[in-house]
Amino acid sequence: MGVSKRQMQNFLIYILDMVGLTAGYFVAVYLRFGNLKTAYGYMKADTYLRWIIAMAVLTFVYLLFHPNRSFFKRKIKDEVRCDFQTVILTGAGMAMIAMLMADASKYSRFIYMFTIGFEFFYMIIVHRLYRKYWLRRRSNHSFARKMMLITTSGEAEQVITNIIKEKIWDLWITSIVIIDKDMVGENVCGIPVIGFTYRSMFEYAARNVVDEVFIYIPKEYKYPVAMTIQNFEDMGINTSLNIPLFQINQNLNKTLETVGPYNVVSFSGREVSLFMLLLKRAMDILGGLVGLLITGIALIFVAPAVKLESPGPLLFSQKRVGRNGRIFKIYKIRSMYQDAEECKKELMAQNEMDGLMFKMKDDPRITKVGKFIRKTSIDELPQFWNVLKGDMSLVGTRPPTVDEFEQYSAYHKKRLCRTPGLTGIWQVSGRSTITDFEEIVKLDVQYIENWSLWLDIKILFKTVALVFKGDDGAQ
Asked: Bacterial sugar transferase domain location, by residue (predicted)?
């Protein structure tokens, strides 16, 4: 039931945003042409076609980027940021469709800009009012779930405060049962204590509105949890049980699953929807195909220069470590002399990185042609084949060499829990100036924990800018 209510809220907010977009569009049309009849006479059916396109684009943005995540917990700065991203994506989509339809020259810039601007301010105001309405009324709204809390006197206030802070729009604690002492008739955070004994607790639940029960009992207390849950189940009341043993890390996702015949609680990091992963993979395949086309063109000019300057193969392959320790071969255009790997051991004393990664500004192993193709990142182009194969992604964490990986501490491996990338967050965060491997690990973990398709797109644009600037980084 909770999931369906959440979906309903997202749908209602989506409808409100559609109303704002529609209002902004037709107000703009009215201001531009004096009235809608004149606009229709001038623009014909295009008046409504462009409105439908705007609605379709906003719908696509909702499906792709889920702008209403954590809607009820947003502060004003988060609201402004989310709404700005939504209208920018919507505006960009409208402009792109207008170009594809060869309609851009006929598109009124006033209508276009006014609609986007109106929608932005409309969303900020309406979202804030909508949020305040639900959060203020959740304590007595008939739609809200009424919860009974069963806990101890020492935990009650903190549990209630933590639940209220979560700003769950359709949930409110209406009654408390304190199991370690008789506090019947008292209030905790303004919520009445209604029971101390089993009998009083079940009698209250039988004669009053109780949609759910939450049991939060510290592990040192012996409490007949199974019997309590069964009695509430017999009454048709959903019961949730907190298990203190499993509160290892609040950032971990916990799910009930089975391993063979055993029921288990599974712990995992941030979960990503299958739809978003498929979109990321589709972007990788498209980028890989385009990248290989660029690679083929580049090789026509680069290959003769590489072969003429130094003997050896055109392409260089090296074992790298991918997702969760999988070994794969990475490919590059050779930018070093053929004995570069043997010479690396002699140069380790001149390593400019603090930690497990090797980087040297004036590396004597690099050829003259190699300096150019590294500065322009041309040497990395064959890795689009790794992207197409699925060993790598367009955006991810840098895949370490095997010898680097063998020196990893346990916490370093978290940067390998996702598919490694051709570029990543640390490469666009000052890769020429970062000299501490631990800082790179911190940035990579930050990327993993905050991943979104929009973040990947921003990193790709920043990478292109750095390539044209000629910024080279660690290999």
From this structure: 280-469
